[in-house]
Amino acid sequence: MRGTWIVTICLALLSAAAGAGELHLRNGARIPGELRSVDGRNIVWRAELIGDIKVETKSIASVDSITAARLQVGASDALEDCHLSGDAKNVALRCTAGTTATAQWRDIETAEAESSGKVTASLTRERGNSFSDDYEVDARATLRRGQRRHEFEGSLDYEEKRDYTAEDEAELSYQLDFLHRDGWYHYTKLDFRRDRLEALQESLIAGVGIGRTIHPWHGVNLRLQGGPDVVRFDLKEYGRGSDKGGNLQWRMDWKTELLRLDLTLFHEGEFGWLFDDTDVNNLDTSTGVSIPLIERLVAEIRLDYDRTGLQLPGIDNTNEEWVFALGYAW
Predict the structure, then answer these.
(1) β-sheet bridge partners, residue 138
(2) Is the torsion defined by CA of 289, 290, 293, 298 positive or negative?
(3) Cα 153 from Cα 142, distance rounded (Å)
(4) Which of 63, 174, 318, 328 has the fewest CB atoms in 10 Å of its CB?
């Protein structure tokens, strides 16, 4: 009977050990845990009893991850449910349906989700000295197919004050990214914007450019892009016209576990201008936090700021708005 208990305990210990991967560093440290993500030069390893740590691949003596991951190797399609093992240079992948691959760390990264997005809506009702209803809807979706990424964005801000429309803003954009190695991509995009209360009342923008996505540290995604545009615009008191211009966009997301909540802090912005008349420019920024609620429902608090460089009499060229919204994310 005593021997049976010893065998049972040994089998339990072996089962527990087999249920976790192991990261062996060149300094001799052995860290049980599992792979979280790969970005070509670094891995994020979820160490038992410690949490997530970021390790340069050149510091790895060997690694064996039991957890299945969705990985991208070079320009190929994403590989599903892959187990990873290797050393400081080469990595072997064993995936579902018997798929295997061998590559260097620089060619491997955690694959993006094939689709993601978020829709938020807010309603502000004011009664008393003033009477107004403000409706705002914002939507964003991303769809990836191989080395192409489609991005859609749209927003509508509609305000009524005692039976007349005080503000009617709309924006719709589409961007197609052609993805390359190390986070680089080039893009082509088309944007439409309308704001009847600004000097730049309407614009249609077609542009191309180059961008890059980087991960400065775990949980942080930083994206920068820019390039030339062709702009067709409608300026109040000046009429319609077209010109060449430039465009710069940026976005940062920080997924943090602050206060043990899975919060996402974000900041994004866009600055566009005309080459022949630099006074005709526009800056839009949005800064806030997304808070998960139940299932895929989220709450969002943000500060939207926009500024038009052209100043006309009787028209404010800046606008600030606090938005408290509910939405759905996937």
Answers:
(1) 120, 155
(2) positive
(3) 9
(4) 318
Q: For residue 6, what pLDDT is reported?
A: 46
The pTM for the full model equals: 0.72
pLDDT at 328: 94
What distance in Å separates the CA atoms of residue 293 and residue 291, rounded to the nearest whole number? Answer: 6
Q: Which of 160-174, 235-249, 307-321 has the highest mean pLDDT?
A: 235-249
* Residue spans per domain, the chain: 2-110, 115-329
Cα–Cα dist 205/244, whole Å: 10
Helix (H) or strand (E) holding 288: strand 281-292
C-alpha torsion angle, residues 73, 248, 263, 183 (rounded to 10): 10
Other C-beta atoms closer than 10 Å to the C-beta of 202 total: 17
Specify the higher pLDDT residue, 274 or 74: 274
Question: Residue 309 CB: number of other CB atoms within 10 A?
Answer: 18
The Cα–Cα gap between 294 and 273 comes to: 41
Give the model's confidence band at 12: pLDDT under 50 very low, under 70 low, under 90 confident, else very high.
very low
Quote the CA–CA distance of 220 and 264 in Å, as a whole number.
10
Give the CATH architecture of domain 115-329: Beta Barrel (2.40)
Strands 200-214 and 100-104: unpaired
